[in-house]
Amino acid sequence: MFNKIIRTDARNYALTILRLVLGLVFFAHGAQKVLGWFGGYGFSGTMGFFTFLFFLFVRFAPMIPMNEIKMMLPQTKVKRGAPGAETTLEETV
Fold it and tell me: What per-residue confidence (pLDDT) applies to 65?
């Protein structure tokens, strides 16, 4: 299976050029992130950005289960009787 993926016909120059261009693009992107080349912020800047995104996520993450629980609970309406009588709950759909 692996040989089928990496096998290239000797006359297929377009695929070779595509692989070289994609390799250069990925190298430039990685050099920006890790080395700070080509106008990138380097390793410390990249890690600072990821840390900022993580703390931003942590700040809003509790809202997700709170909203899920709110949507799962049935909508209820309290029906109050006379003083001293039982209070009943009516489910609205």
Answer: 85
